[in-house]
Amino acid sequence: xxxxxxxxxxxxxxxxxxxxxxxxxxxxxxxxxxxxxxxxxxxxxxxxxxxxxxxxxxxxxxxxxxxxxxxxxxxxxxxxxxxxxxxxxxxxxxxxxxxxxxxxxxxxxxxxxxxxxxxxxxxxxxxxxxxxxxxxxxxxxxxxxxxxxxxxxxxxxxxxxxxxxxxxxxxxxxxxxxxx
Length: 180
Hints:
Blueprint: H1 2-36, E1 37-45, E2 50-54, H2 57-65, E3 69-78, E4 86-93, E5 98-102, H3 105-113, E6 117-125, E7 134-141, E8 146-150, H4 153-161, E9 165-173
Antiparallel strand pairs: 1-2, 1-3, 4-5, 4-6, 7-8, 7-9
């Protein structure tokens, strides 16, 4: 009976010590992910009729300098490449006055064929759905000559109400609440 008691106490102690060493690792992994995420912000220019989705300080500064107004955070992207992610690239068309944020090969090809110039990588997104992520959707307005990349319901609703057509999913991002 004493051996049985000592065995149970020993197993309980090992379990407690293991949980004390594993739990901080799990917390650290969560903190690391949240620290690696940056807001994917939407800016709007009424003068250009352009939606501009950016996650870099350069993009934010360019938007503000060009008179764009902040609309909302669309989601969260990784600041640096993580395993299983792809670059979210920004293209610019001076002819259209349009910023185009895309993470797919077809998006990049379409941008180049339409005369857009590559500007930079805005962040990194998943090419396929991952736990806890939402789709980053692309909408297009032929009337405005505007590409609109959004990951929120309000963004999708606004695009449809303004006559944009759905083009495709560009990738998957974390919801805005994960990086605010």
